[in-house]
Amino acid sequence: MEIERINEHTVKFYISYNDIEQRGFEREEIWYNRERSEELFWEMMDEIHQEEEFTIDGPLWIQVQALEKGLEVLVTRAQLSKDGNKYELPVGDDKMPGDEKIESLLDQQFHSKYEDKDFIEEFEEENFQFLIRFQDFEDIISLAHRIQLEGLSNSLFSYENKYYLFIEFNEEIYTEDELEDMLSIVLEYGQESAMSIHRIEEYGKKIINEDALAVMVKHFSL
Questions:
Q1: pLDDT at residue 91 in the model
Q2: What is the phi-psi region of residue 115: left when phi exceeds 0, alpha when psi lies from -120 to 50, beta otherwise?
Q3: Which residues of the chain are modeled with pLDDT < 70?
Q4: Which residues have C-beta within 8 Å of that of residue 34, sequence separation ≥ 6?
Q5: Are 23 and 75 in a shared domain?
Q6: Phi/psi-derived region of residue 100, left when phi > 0, alpha when psi is between -120 and 50, beta in every other case
Q7: Element housing 104 (H / E)
Q8: What range defines the domain where residue 74 resides?
Q9: What sign has the CA pseudo-torsion 111, 108, 191, 120?
Q10: Whole-angstrom Cα distance, residue 55 to residue 80?
């Protein structure tokens, strides 16, 4: 996969059909199966996040162009308006031409729902939920012994030889500054993943369903 960082908010990548097949996806699935196209998309975004540190922290605008030997995808993060009250998506007349079938698979899943006011409000309310990827199990143990566990919902998964901690901070207990401090501690040990928790729940293996960090403290010492 070829990745090009356009600017702070936009990344473009090209993936050949051969590369898609080597990742375990059939070309027909990408055209007609929304779940499989979404799975491929998040796999690619996770790779981009690792290589380019392109973090998904808001709504996305996705443009897909189907080429003869592969797909060219442009992904742009929406930005908060100057007054901070709403997201602004870079939608205009310069939209790249693409195949409507495959574009709709991604566009309907990601773009259209971000235009909905209720969804944006829901996103803003849930912006202290994170999926964190860990390379080493020992890093999770170290985190468990360091972070404040009260008001912290978390579950542990494994997927493709990596560990994922889905963590939700209770905003009613902590101030915004305290929440940011806690998140910074978490990110000392792991990296935020661009994949969705739904993908991990479906394709990964659940190790500890709830209070994973508390379980780690109980059973593993430093």
A1: 46
A2: alpha
A3: 56-58, 79-127, 194
A4: 105, 108, 109
A5: yes
A6: alpha
A7: helix 100-114
A8: 2-125
A9: positive
A10: 15
